[in-house]
Each structure stands twice: as C-alpha cells, then as structure tokens.
Design brief:
Elements (H helix, E strand, L loop, with lengths): L3 E7 L12 H14 L8 E5 L14 H15 L5 E7 L2 E4 L2 E4 L9 H4 L1 E2 H10 L4 E7 L14 H10 L3 E3 L9 E2 L4 E2 H10 L6 E2 H18 L8 E3 L9 E3 L20 H8 L13 E4 L3 E4 L23 E3 L5 E3 L7 H31 L1 H6 L23 H15 L5 H11 L9 H24 L3 H8 L7 H34 L5 H11 L9 H24 L3 H8 L9 H17 L1
Parallel strand pairs: 1-2, 1-3, 3-7, 7-8
Antiparallel strand pairs: 4-5, 5-6, 8-12, 9-10, 11-13, 14-15, 16-17
Helix pairs in contact: 2-4, 4-5, 6-7, 11-12, 12-13, 13-14, 13-15, 14-15, 15-16, 16-17, 17-18, 17-19, 18-19
C-alpha cells in the first residue's frame, strides 16, 4: 500500500521582509485537513512554520538550511516506491537573474541566490525521489516593492512542464497573491481548502483545477481584491485525471459544491481549519517508525479529535427523526420494524412500565425511612475523593502533568496571532513549569524557540529601519536562555545608539522640510544645506538624499518656468541656486548658458 507524504511550509515573521498575516495559518490548516479528513498519517506529514516544534532533535524552524535538510531527508530516505508526496508553501516568492526562489524565514532580497531556496533544486529533488506522484502547491508572489515586472513564477511553470511535476500556483506570473483578514487565510488557500472538502469520491487534478479557476476569482471579488487566477501546470495532459485525493472512506464535511448554494461560508472554513493548533508534544514515547528503516517523531501525536473542533466533523451523522416507509418515525440509523417486531416490542414496553413503577416505589420508601440511616452515618466523614462539602461528587484533582500541559496548550493558543507580546506571554506561561516537573524539558525547548523568534523579529525590524520597534521586541527576550538574552542585550545597545542618531537625523530632516516655501527657490536651497548634514551610512540618510534630489529638481523647474515667461535674468539667478552634486545641477548649468545666449540676442 502506498503512503501519502506531506511537507507544508508557512512563514509569517520574516527576518528581512515585511511580515505576512496568514501564511502560517495556511500551512497549518492544510496539515489539519489532510490528517484529520483525508487519511494522511501524521507521522508522514511535516509542518515547518514560525512556531512548529523540534522533530527527532531537528528544528522545523523554516530557515533555508532546515528546509533543504528536511527536503533532502524526505526525497532520499523517507519516500519509497509507489508513494505520493505533496509540497505546499505559503510565503514570499521572488525572482533574480531569471531564477525563481522561495524565501525562507531568513531570506534576504540583497542576496536571493545565497539565502533563497531555488525552485530548480526543489523540483529536481522531488523528481529524483521514488514517489509515483508529486504535487506542488505554491501560494507565493506577494513581495510587491522589489518584484514589480519580474514575472515571479514563470520559471516555475517551465520547471513543472520540463520535469512533469503537477504544480498549482496561486496566481498568474503578472499578478499578486492576496490575503483576507476575515478569512484568516490567503485567498488561494481558502479556495484550496474549500475545493478539497468537496464530496468528490476521487479528487483529481482536473476537478481541483475547475474548482479553483471558478472560486478564486470569485473570492477576490467578494473581498475587494485585484483579480487573482490560479496557474495549473499538468504535463503531459493525461495526468490531469490522476487521483490526488483518493476516497478513503472518511466522512467529508457536507455542503461544498462547486456551483451549488450549499457551500459553507468562508468564515466557517477559516474557523474550522486555520485557528486550530495541533498538540505540540514530542516525547520519547511518541517516536514512530516511518517508511523503511527510517524513524521520525510525530510532533502532533495524539487524538485527532483534538485537531479540529468536534462540532465541525463527526465520525457518524447525528441521529435525526426521519419518516420511514411504513409511516413510523425512526432514527436514520435504525432498522425499520416489522409487525412481529412490534409484538415483541409491546411485551417489553409492559415490562419497562412495571419496572419503572417498582423503581419509583423503592425511591419513595427510601425517602420516608432513610432519615435514621442518615443520622447514624452523620458522624462519618465522607471520602474527599468521592464528595465535597455540599455532598456532591467532587472532581478528581488534576495531576501536575495535566496542569503543565494546560499551560503549554494555553501558550500555543496565544501564538496564533504571531504578535511579539503574545510570544512573551506564552514564555511566561511555560516558565511556570519548574525543573523536575513533568514536561519541563518540552517547556524549556519552547521557551528557547519562542525567545529566538522574538529576537529574529526584532532583528527584522531593525533591518527595515524600525529601531524603536526592534528595541520594543528585544526587551521582551527573557533572561533564560542566557545566550539568546545576551545577544538581545548586545543588539539593544547597538540599536539604542542607532535609534538616537535616527531620531536626531529625523529631526534635522524635518527642520529642512519646515524651511520650504512654495515658489521660493532660495527656501529649497536652504533646505538642501540642512539635509546634507546627515552623514552617509546613518539612519535617514537615504531619505534625505531623495529629498535633496527632489528639491534640486524643483529649483530647476522654477527656473524653467521663469525663463518661459521671458524673465531670463530671474531664471538664471534661480538656476544658480541648484547645488553642486545634485541630479539637476548639470541641467541647470546648461540652461544658464543657453539663457545667457538668448539674452545677448535680445
């Protein structure tokens, strides 16, 4: 029997890029669905997100190195002949020198080739694996400012065709992939989850393509986003009828139809899929054998009922009265009774009636004659395990392990919004688990991982020039673990110094802007003199240089305006105010010479 493998990656808090809102929820929701509804085995499903736990001592934090290590293990060791594998990514996709890259959490646009994960390397790894079928799902291409016109995804399409790996991209190469706060998902993932939840007996690529092609543009319109259309690459075309989600006999959620009115609301999909955090437990007892001769600890081991709220999926339909063929009301799960059954039923109904009457009589006698017995036993102290002060049955005291598990579960819930302050609160909860108590080692691993995430977030803010935000985050790093705290304190000292310079330079630039008076060229010249006091390499320098370039151009435009009115003397005086080493200086010198010649002619 073939195995289904899954590697799902979702990244919110990038170190060098603006954070995303719901990429982690995208990856986690797909993991939840495929494990709880589609029969994928949890010990064959890898989840790499900002907060995913260690597996067999190996970090699942989605750095470039970790993604490549896990991909290498999956394709070279875990996957066996006949297996099927899915790869899902939600995060930034970029393009450099004609090559597409997925950006890991430590990806840097200044060095895409050195910090990104090349799409060619991913596809070649999948192709060399022993899998019978591969499926790549990419919700990427969200980096706006630095990727305009670069057609992110075009090389990926070529690779998918060349290596014959079915691939679905969230949007066309000239489009952007969008998120929606009310869905708590990217629009592509929301549509994908809906499509996978349809009641098709055997989900094929063709079926999924039809659904996404209709539903994704519809979601864009519903949520006021620019149009986004999926790209589905299947080569050769015959693979489009290949089953990607077999009918495993597991009840699907009803109400999902491509064109019908019974489709669940997207809010319900988001709640049932995205807001759930699997139990992050990885102890020695949970180590499971995977594949042939390989082992991996399942970080989400436990009862799958905990993965999604039970109200959203039931192993059996609820018992509701239905009208049977003979007119009697019966449960939808009951067999219709025959006349002989009714005869037997009347006998037992009489027995139940007599038995019920006898029971009521016994209870009445106990209430009348039970007082002396209660008086005799009044001096006895009831067992604290069986009753409380009111005489009712008391709950069994929680064990320390249960208390500590509740603390870790509450901590995980706090992390769902990916706010630095909530990581700090989660650390405070986990820190209540003391040395020698159950789950202490797991709590310490979590504290270390969350502390590193806080520091990485602070570093990311500093890289973007937001030093006040970086300092606010770094100050939340706890004293333990000591190495991370020491690094945070070192960074705080550096950022404090830079933040002071930033503040002073911002004030300087603001002073320069305050000098400007429209139509007065000399005010722009004075502003440039002030802005030039901001040294190169210091915060706000780049912004100051942009302002200087703009102001010098404005001075030249004022000079041209006056020259066009025949005021050559005034135009020459104005153009002379354009400072050296500014973009408009050379043009202003040429214009001055021309206007002087025109003066001589007149």
């Amino acid at each position: 029997m073939s195995n289904h493998w899954l590697m799902t990656i979702g990244i919110n808090q990038y170190q060098y890029l603006q954070p995303l809102g719901y990429a982690q929820a995208d990856a986690q929701a797909l993991w939840n669905f495929l494990v709880s509804k589609a029969g994928f085995m949890p010990d064959r499903c890898l989840l790499l997100t900002d907060t995913s736990p260690f597996v067999e001592g190996q970090s699942t934090y989605p750095t470039r190195e970790n993604i490549k290590l896990w991909m290498d293990w999956l394709c070279r060791e875990a996957i066996q002949p006949g297996d099927l594998v899915w790869l899902f990514f939600s995060g930034y996709g970029v393009k450099s020198d004609g090559q597409d890259y997925l950006m890991p959490i430590d990806g840097n646009l200044a060095d895409m080739a050195g910090t990104g994960v090349a799409m060619r390397s991913l596809y070649e790894s999948l192709k060399t694996s022993k899998a019978t079928m591969q499926l790549v799902l990419l919700d990427m291409n969200r980096e706006r400012e630095n990727q305009a016109g670069t057609q992110v995804g075009s090389q990926t399409v070529e690779l998918a065709r060349e290596l014959e790996i079915p691939t679905i991209l969230s949007c066309q190469p000239n489009q952007l992939s969008h998120e929606a706060s009310d869905l708590q998902h990217g629009l592509f993932t929301a549509a994908l989850l809906e499509g996978l939840r349809t009641e098709e007996a055997d989900m094929s690529l063709a079926t999924l393509k039809r659904y996404l092609s209709e539903r994704l543009p519809e979601l864009c319109e519903l949520h006021w986003r620019p149009r986004q259309e999926p790209v589905v690459v299947v080569h050769p075309p015959g693979k489009s009828h290949q089953v990607i989600l077999p009918d495993l006999g597991i009840p699907m959620t009803s109400g999902y139809h491509v064109g019908g009115a019974e489709r669940k609301t997207l809010a319900e999909v988001a709640v049932s899929s995205a807001t759930v955090t699997p139990t992050l437990v990885a102890t020695q007892e949970h180590t499971q054998t995977v594949g042939s001769g390989s082992s991996i600890r399942n970080p989400f081991d436990g009862n799958l009922d905990d993965i999604e709220p039970r109200s959203n999926w039931q192993s059996e339909p609820a018992v509701t009265p239905t009208e049977t063929t003979n007119g009697h009301s019966a449960s939808s799960r009951n067999i219709i009774h025959t006349e002989e059954d009714d005869d037997d039923g009347s006998f037992w109904q009489q027995m139940l009636l007599w038995g019920g009457g006898l029971l009521l009589l016994v209870l009445l006698l106990m209430s009348l004659f039970g007082r002396p017995w209660r008086q005799q036993t009044a001096g006895r102290q009831p067992s604290p395990a069986l009753s409380n002060k009111s005489g009712s049955v008391a709950a069994k005291p929680k064990t320390q392990e249960q208390i500590n598990k509740e603390r870790l579960d509450k901590a995980q819930i706090l992390l769902q919004n990916n706010q630095v302050s909530q990581y700090s609160e989660a650390i405070a909860l986990a820190s209540q688990i003391k040395s020698g108590q159950p789950l202490y080692a797991q709590a310490q691993d979590s504290i270390e991982r969350w502390s590193q995430i806080i520091l990485d977030t602070a570093q990311g803010r500093a890289n973007l020039g937001n030093f006040s935000g970086a300092l606010a985050a770094a100050n939340l790093v706890p004293k333990d673990p000591q190495p991370i705290y020491a690094q945070a304190q070192k960074s705080i000292k550096q950022w404090n110094a830079v933040a002071k310079k930033q503040q002073a330079n911002k004030a300087l630039l603001q002073t320069a802007k305050g000098l400007i008076k429209p139509e007065q060229a000399s005010s722009y010249n004075k502003a440039i003199d002030i802005a030039r006091k901001i040294p190169a390499g210091q915060p706000v320098y780049t912004e100051a240089q942009k302002s200087i370039a703009q102001w010098s151009q404005t001075i030249f435009q004022l000079a041209q305006k006056r020259a066009s009115q025949g005021n050559f003397n005034v135009a020459i005086d104005t153009a002379s105010l354009v400072p050296k080493n500014t973009p408009a200086y050379a043009k202003s010198r040429q214009a001055i010479a021309q206007w002087k010649r025109q003066q001589h002619k007149t």
